[in-house]
Records
---
Amino acid sequence: MKNINKAGCFALAITFSPFGASGAQAQEASAERGEKLANFHCARCHVMPGRSNMGIGSTPSFKIMVKSEAADWRDKFEAFYSLAPHPAFVTIKELRTERSGPAIAAPIVLSFREIDDLIAYVDKLAIEHRKP
Ligand code: HEC
């Protein structure tokens, strides 16, 4: 746990470094930040591992997705913002896309770096929940 906290402080130091954008880009993806993002944004609909949130109807849980035998589950996480139903409420900062379709849910705005953090988190989940 101590090491994780140290890593967190280090990441913060980089975020606020005078090197600005290039410093932020060099920053490694963080599963810890990804987990926070997922619990904040995705847990509104998806059931998250280790939490007792309810999720919405037919929305697949993150655990079921990372355990999926389908080889492309990770691609789907990388592109989830372009897969239904997400384009209706997810915007990527760098793409400056407009949300498409009716606003069926409160908007979520993410940067590519935050997507990388989410991927780091689901990679960690996959290691924890898949059989070797
Ligand atoms: C408003 C509800 C809602 C929110 C918020 C939401 N999702 Fe989803 N998501 C869904 C639904 C519903 C599906 C199932 C779509 C289907 O099966 O066609 C889904 C499916 C997915 C899939 C699988 C896509 C596929 O085509 O198989 C991924 C990956 C995913 N979501 C990632 C995320 C991530 C990451 C977040 C948070 C940043 C998130 N979702 C937030 C409703 C939501």
---
Amino acid sequence: MMRRLKWIAVGALLGLGTLTLTGRAEDAPDPRAAQVRAGAQVFSLVCAMCHGDRLEGVGGPSLSDSAFRAFYEGTTVHGIYNRVRDEMPLDRPGSLTDQEALDVVAYVLRANGVPLPDGGVRADTLDAPVHFAAAPQEDAANPAERAAP
Ligand code: HEC
């Protein structure tokens, strides 16, 4: 009787173990999702006052309209990254860390439907091409939601 209970207990443990492993495999976090979330925070703290909560532009230009898209379409991530790192925020250029600049670029690209390079926007993926989704999103209703890769 005791022996039987023991095996049931072992079985239960094994079962749980398998469930945990499976869960882990399926929920493996995409590093890009975390980066986009971090970038969204930088954006709302540092950029939104000029570029708008929905990238629609306020004092600064829209970062989601067709002019923006046309300008960066077919370029590499490098171009927009350099612009942000060296010139933004306009009132305090150079105040972002490199990581903040990488994260906020990931967010802006993702909010525009641009697929991010594997592993996210990093110093070694800046050569990745920028391709916008076919349909322009003049009114970025909820970039944070759309931003999830
Ligand atoms: C004080 C206002 C201000 C803040 C804050 C600001 N920007 Fe800008 N930004 C501007 C203006 C004005 C321009 C257009 C003139 C220029 O490029 O110098 C611009 C241009 C840009 C461009 C180029 C747009 C294009 O069409 O080529 C990007 C990209 C950009 N900003 C991203 C950011 C990001 C990301 C942040 C936050 C880290 C940020 N900006 C913060 C005012 C601002």
